[in-house]
Amino acid sequence: MPFPRPTLSEIIQQTYADVRSNLPGADPLLRFSVLNILCKAVAGLAYGHYGYQDWIARQSQPYTATEENLEAWAGLKGVIRVAAAAAAGTVTFTGAAATVVPPGTRIVRGDGVEYTTDAEATVGGGGTITTAATAVEAGSAGNADAGTVFTLAAPIAGLVSSATAATAFTGGTDVEDDDSLRTRMLAAYSAPPQGGSATDYVQWARAVAGVTRVWVTPNGMGVGTAVVRFMMDEVNDAFDGFPQGADGVAADEPRDTPATGDQLVVANYILGLQPVTALVYAVAPVANPIAFTITGTTGWSAELKAEVENAIAATLKEQGAPGETVLLSYIEAAIAAVAGTAGFVITVPAANPTQTAGQLPTKGTVTFAA
């Protein structure tokens, strides 16, 4: 049974009672008496001891451990906290033909985030050059949309001081938080490695920076293959969490076409862990937007409608999976949980929406009707 930890006030009152019972006639409640001060001091120490013991109890088992203790428990199963990763993309410079952009050239975003070019580049006859660049600091702050404007940290003769992101800067991820690490660790404890089972592929893919959800289809591309579909909900938020790249296999896998972008990163990581005979494809799910029509919404404010749309999107994210059916009852429950929505009826879709293999449900157009 759980041990109820006493509050500081309860410990103080217990200390007062102990003094009264052991020193007849003494009054520890006098405001500035020595006994009053000593009672509160002793109670404070006892309360601190209770807190330390509570902390020890939480760190003594993997389900509630935190920080370095959580990492120690996870390490027993070979699960390591995913480090932060730097965002990367391409940037276009403008300048005089033959102007050289040295490797490591620093460019700065409007909010002060810095990037460096990956290799030497030379402005062509058209007056522009596009080259790869990487954020100086690892983390999600380095992600940027295509078209973002940068400024040279130091002027280069013959080069315009501003540059533009030719493609989005993606892949920047923060250090994995405790909740994510704990989820992967508990999965490793509950589903030990099986030499290439479906759960193994899920755990391997989840260990890649930025990957948040994974689904595995055995023999999805034929006998002896494994199709790993995954999402990157936080890193690729600008793309609704969908991986950016081309589907395929690892770079060192000669039996089929290598993937690119996010898919290549996942495929390359899994290649070093998978059974040698398996042919693994890293694949992005195909978005399947589901349109909704909701009646009984007369008088709903724009803010309320936005809350309802967010509830639908969150439920589809939580319940949706490639090739699976989403139950409308979950959507209805999520909308009903939003204050002020009583009396609504979902008329479209008329039945539980089902995805074909590889499709992942997403929120389509939501129509609010009387």
Quickly count the helices. 8
The share of residues in extended strands comes to: 15-25%
Structural class, by secondary structure, is alpha+beta
**Count of individual beta strands:** 14
Overall shape: it is: extended
Q: Low-confidence runs (pLDDT<50, min 5 residues)?
A: none
Question: Any idea how many domains?
Answer: 5
- Distance between the first and last residues' Cα: 53 Å
Query: What pattern of helices and strands is seen along the backbone?
Result: HHHEEEEEEEEHHEEHEEHHEE
Specify Rg, calculated over alpha carbons.
29 Å
- The percentage helix is 25-40%
Mean pLDDT: 93
Strand order of the largest sheet: 1-6-4-3-7-8
Overview of this protein structure:
This protein has 370 residues and is of the alpha+beta class. The protein folds into five domains: 53 residues, no CATH class; 39 residues, no CATH class; 78 residues, no CATH class; 89 residues, no CATH class; 83 residues. The chain has a six-stranded antiparallel β-barrel with strand order 1-6-4-3-7-8. Strands 9-10-11 form a three-stranded mixed sheet, with helices on one face. It has a three-stranded mixed sheet with strand order 13-12-14. Strand 9 and strand 10 form a beta hairpin. The longest helix is centred in the first third of the chain and has 26 residues. The radius of gyration is 29 Å and the shape is extended. The two termini are 53 Å apart.
Keywords:
370 residues, alpha+beta, 5 domains, six-stranded antiparallel β-barrel, 14 strands, 30% helix
List the helices and strands and how they pair.
Layout: H1 8-22, H2 34-59, H3 67-75, E1 88-95, E2 100-101, E3 106-109, E4 114-117, E5 121-122, E6 128-135, E7 149-152, E8 159-165, H4 178-190, H5 198-206, E9 213-218, E10 225-231, H6 261-271, E11 279-283, E12 286-295, H7 302-319, H8 328-336, E13 345-348, E14 359-368
Parallel strand pairs: 10-11, 12-14
Antiparallel strand pairs: 1-6, 1-8, 2-5, 3-4, 3-7, 4-6, 7-8, 9-10, 12-13
Helix pairs in contact: 1-2, 3-4, 7-8
